[in-house]
Amino acid sequence: MGTPTRYSKPALNFNDQLAELKGRGMIVDDEAQAIHWLKTISYYRLSAYFHPFKESDDTCEPGTDFERVQMLYSFDRKLRLLLLDAIERIEVALRAAIAECLPEVRQLRCDREAPPFLAATDRGLPGHPCDARSATADHSAHRASTR
Known about the structure:
The protein has helices at 14-23, 31-40, 43-50, 66-113, 132-145. It is mainly α.
């Protein structure tokens, strides 16, 4: 495979992660709550929300507190959930619209696929995709198998 990657930074426990944030100037009023967030969300996920408050020397802007990071994370989470809800509604409506027009598309396909020498009445040959009896049998078999 290759040479394993050696990491220069040691893994930090939650108390050390909190000490690191405080050492960079983050104000933490409720340490127990901050530790809970680090345990349940993780330092690395929250680190994206620290960036707006970082200075060029990797310290926090003066007055940055952990509560502001929590508020930003919560806002982002709520926004994401609202967007996912809207996307799901659009997806369901689009699927319904497609399902509604599929019979028309199938009929167009059947009209187009029928050999020109067959009369319109001969297009319902057994086994042909446009055969009404075949489609009904397939549908009945599918319904029976899902029960």
